């Protein structure tokens, strides 16, 4: 059994074609190979930047040998004329390169990542003039389905967040935020996603996550898609109250009727 290297397709970047009819049988060629039957298979390996096409051959049968000639070394691998070379046969095997389509963000309309969750602290309320901490959470998602006639997997990764604090203020951040305890900060200190309200009232806060997308056509290679797919959270209500302080000479426990008690 011999392994003969066939030929190689070179590409300037990642090979984006998918080969159809990649394996073909090499027919027996007794009439061309001096009575020897050569059979085998042609195989293709896609390495991302190159495609190797190789052939495995097996020489069967035998051809007449003139006793007057030098003895034939039976331990040596058989040889064949050039027109029997596996590389030539494999090069001429029928195949087709089918290019995967270019994907736009609009093509992903049927692939919808999950909406982010939204919460805050103090839970459900805030204080006028002090930061209310708001946090959105989203994670990587992979969805499988059909896209432009191909079976694909689409990967979504959070790439940014847009917070709407319900008072006309919006801000875009790279993070969904974190709890004060998780960052080692005391309550009512500013964070990347906190907001300070200037008036009492109930505010409907929302968050939009921006997902970057990539598509795998089954080769294990992720092809990025320009743009973002967005998903919106539901409303998170914050009741903003005023906090008043007064100087007293006794505590409320000592004087329940005192100022601010």
Concise overview:
By secondary structure, the chain is mainly beta. It is built from two helices and 16 strands.
Descriptive notes:
The protein is mostly beta strands and 261 residues long. It folds into 2 domains: 2-99, no CATH class; 105-241, Sandwich (Immunoglobulin-like). The protein is 4% helix and 44% strand. The protein contains 2 helices and 16 strands. The protein has helices at 86-91, 180-183; strands at 2-10, 17-20, 24-26, 37-46, 50-60, 96-99, 117-121, 125-127, 131-137, 141-147, 150-164, 170-173, 195-196, 201-216, 223-232, 236-241. Strands 8, 10, 11, 12, 14, 15 and 16 form a 7-stranded mixed β-sheet that branches. Strand 11 (150-164) and strand 12 form a beta hairpin. The longest helix is centred in the middle third of the chain and has 6 residues, at 86-91. The termini are far apart. Mean pLDDT is 77; it is low at 1-16, 18-26, 28-36, 61-67 and 72-78.
| Name of the level-1 CATH class of the largest domain | Mainly Beta
- Overall geometry: elongated
Compute the separation of the termini in Å: 96 Å
From the alpha carbons, calculate the radius of gyration and give it in angstroms: 35 Å
* Strand portion: 35-45%
Helical content band: under 10%
Query: pLDDT average, as an integer?
Result: 77
């Amino acid at each position: 059994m011999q392994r003969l290297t066939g030929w190689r397709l070179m590409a300037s970047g990642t090979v984006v074609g998918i080969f159809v009819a990649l394996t073909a049988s090499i027919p027996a060629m007794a009439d061309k190979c001096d009575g020897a039957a050569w059979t085998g298979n042609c195989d293709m390996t896609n390495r991302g930047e190159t495609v190797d096409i190789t052939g495995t051959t097996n020489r069967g049968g035998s051809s007449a040998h003139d006793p007057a000639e030098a003895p034939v070394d039976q331990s040596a691998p058989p040889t064949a004329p050039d027109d029997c070379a596996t590389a030539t046969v494999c090069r001429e095997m029928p195949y087709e390169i089918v290019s995967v389509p270019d994907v736009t963000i609009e093509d992903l309309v049927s692939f919808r990542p999950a909406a982010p969750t939204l919460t805050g602290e103090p839970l459900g309320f805030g204080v006028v003039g002090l930061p209310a901490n708001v946090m959105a959470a989203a994670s990587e998602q992979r969805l499988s389905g059909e896209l432009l006639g191909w079976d694909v997997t689409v990967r979504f990764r959070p790439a940014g967040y847009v917070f709407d604090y319900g008072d006309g203020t919006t801000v875009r951040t790279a993070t969904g935020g974190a709890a004060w305890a998780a960052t080692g900060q005391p309550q009512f200190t500013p964070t990347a996603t906190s907001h300070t309200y200037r008036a009492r009232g109930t505010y409907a806060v929302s968050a939009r996550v921006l997902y970057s997308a990539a598509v795998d056509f089954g080769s294990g290679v992720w092809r990025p898609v320009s743009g973002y797919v967005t998903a919106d959270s539901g409303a998170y209500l914050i009741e903003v109250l005023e906090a008043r302080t007064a100087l007293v000479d006794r505590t409320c426990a000592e004087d329940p009727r005192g100022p601010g008690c």
